[in-house]
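Recap quiz, item 2
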Amino acid sequence: MQDVKTYISEHKERFISELFDLLKIPSISADPAFSKNVIQTAQKIKETLLHAGSDVVEICETDGFPIIYGEKIINKKLPTVLVYGHYDVQPADPIELWDSPPFEPVIKKTDKHPEGAIFARGACDDKGQMYMHVKALEFMVNTNQLPCNVKFMIEGEEEVGSNNLGVFVANNRKKLANDIILISDTGMIANDIPSITTGLRGLSYVEVEVTGPNRDLHSGLYGGAVANPINILTKMIASLHDENNHITIPGFYDKVEELSTEERAEMAKAPFNLEDYKNALDINAVYGEKGYSTNERNAIRPTLDVNGIWGGYIGEGAKTVIASKAYAKISMRLVPNQDWEEITQLFKTHFENIAPEGVTVKVTPHHGGQGYVTPINTIGYSAASKAYETTFGKKPIPQRSGGSIPIVALFEKELESKTILMGFGLNSDAIHSPNEHFGVWNYLKGIETIPYFYKFFTELSK
Amino acid sequence: MQDVKTYISEHKERFISELFDLLKIPSISADPAFSKNVIQTAQKIKETLLHAGSDVVEICETDGFPIIYGEKIINKKLPTVLVYGHYDVQPADPIELWDSPPFEPVIKKTDKHPEGAIFARGACDDKGQMYMHVKALEFMVNTNQLPCNVKFMIEGEEEVGSNNLGVFVANNRKKLANDIILISDTGMIANDIPSITTGLRGLSYVEVEVTGPNRDLHSGLYGGAVANPINILTKMIASLHDENNHITIPGFYDKVEELSTEERAEMAKAPFNLEDYKNALDINAVYGEKGYSTNERNAIRPTLDVNGIWGGYIGEGAKTVIASKAYAKISMRLVPNQDWEEITQLFKTHFENIAPEGVTVKVTPHHGGQGYVTPINTIGYSAASKAYETTFGKKPIPQRSGGSIPIVALFEKELESKTILMGFGLNSDAIHSPNEHFGVWNYLKGIETIPYFYKFFTELSK
């Protein structure tokens, strides 16, 4: 594939401006106010897939946002790659912390991205990484180098739990039949240290509500005499971790996979500088479960984090009130073998049990998904590894990620095929945060590397 | 004073509609958006005092909202009563919990107010109770029965800590010179159980901010590896109470006045039904400091309550984020002898000390004030007692209140006179809460009772 670099340099500006067009649409799936924009994005994905050379593209309606299915079948005897990605994005708030508007993409240089990075919500997660595959297809089709069949499944509910994807996949096994699933929705260690994600954490996301008195009360007249829902909520949440930062929910660790000393030693080889890590976050110390390193804490260990909390008077100035209700959004990252629905139930039962007299507690599960570990002794992994080696000039490192792509475990179950996670973003790209960005170099490197995966996978499949 | 009842029945409708006009102005001192309305209310208070018969009324500018001073001096040899009240109100939120708009007063019957109650923010705290004094003055002046001199000092910053009142009082000792201070900004036990508040709690109100990483982070990539400011904040707040609900701040209880068994036995005589109390709040149990009754917990014991908490994603749906910052508004109710500035400093030092590595903590004091206990063996108390006895037909019970009127202690210090707290509201009037109201009967009863205080106080002063 001598000419992939040439093709990219010739079309670079267009590749970027096409991505800009996608990024300008605020496809925030979590907020009903943006539903129109999500639908609009789905329509745009269809057009880009057709333009890139798909024979067939369908907008498949679901109970939620539509799933875009596209395919280019060149020969039924050849292997088939199924590309998964998502066109929805996280909410942009807190908007005031963005240096430029989240849906007006701009290119700015950074230390990690001296050639410039595209700043916009979704630039990396996942519009930018998903669109690399569309442009890689365009290249292979226009240069008659597509070596196998390809299918696309691009959803619009990944950031809210992919609630309708499971049904869609189960109902379309034949249509989605494939030999390997390819996803770019993770990261790599550094631009000069390519890596392939071999493990993902599961997720259980719940919302809790603590109700005390039937109305807000004057904190002078009632203070000290009734259970204050906010004080109670802080006590309950605080009790979910012990002094070693182990999670105290009974049964929570029962199915946690314990890695061998060898495996942990292997992990520890991945380049990591704790000082750089702390400096990048402006923190004077890391914090987490006793007995595990930072990279273990955020990859092979389950966690419990409050993602949002609110109650009482949060406006300007002071209000001496005891709120009637207090709320929190809590998510647990799970490791392989932990079942997210079981963990959600364990949380619910425990949280309701520890509620003291004087308050009532409601636990509402939001969504979740299973963790996943992919073997590295497959032709899929080998093909990806050779592809990185070709374009980066060095062998990629297998790496566990702390993130979750709940549907990966589902794919394996329903479609009986493995998933390869070829991520080209960096942890420092601030996905889910203000000023999310994606390196222009990374974007183009992805478009350059993906065709080699098709090439090697097809060769190794013979 | 045979004709006070007659006068009230003749002018009842006007007394109510005049109060309505005051209640229609949203004089929320905590929120800068309403500054114009606060000023507008000050102007209106001036007009009503002049109309009621004051000789002189001044709008005294301060660094914050103005203080209205009015007086009617009939004879320098006679005693002088100084009436204090406030024309600002608490914020109305959560607005959605109001059954009728907070600044569109309406009269509705309730179980405790069969003759109807005025529903509006400020109806009881303090516009309604303050205006009783204006109408009582009108009656005494119009019927030539004002037995002594009277001064009014009505401020507009009580709900935000009376920050400028101290300076005003210190700079106007001569102008404000008086023999007794009269305030209606508290409650009584029940319409058939008149009581006089003899104790108030002090207050220290602070805001805390916990900062972790320099930006919001993806909870998958960083979850478990860095200190989550919300989790940390809940741990820190939870640690402020021990298992007996004692406050754990070192030195917090050092100066707390311990009541004798006799005093506690005396307090326990006040009519109180725990079941009614729980039912009124829809709670299955009360909650508080071990070793003390409900009435002791909210009157003679100091407390620490979170009045507001916020951080992370609090919108619809789910966002898997670790917030960079988490916040809480915390107030402590103090008892006599606890110095609010000392307690604020103890809190600040302790809260900063318990911050774990990985976060930084900022504590910002909002405002505060000292507690107060008034003796019952004074002519002021006797005059008030006889006034209630005359109009209610029974002797009022002395009662400690859990609320705070920080400036009462200040008055005693600067003006060297005692304060009498003649409150006509009920705890169930929902001050500081949605659907605040004030019984029409209570409003008119106040107007009827106040002139007798003037009468008896003047007689007893001879």
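Chain A has a mean pLDDT of 95.
Chain A touches chain B through 101 residues (CB under 8 Å).
End of item.
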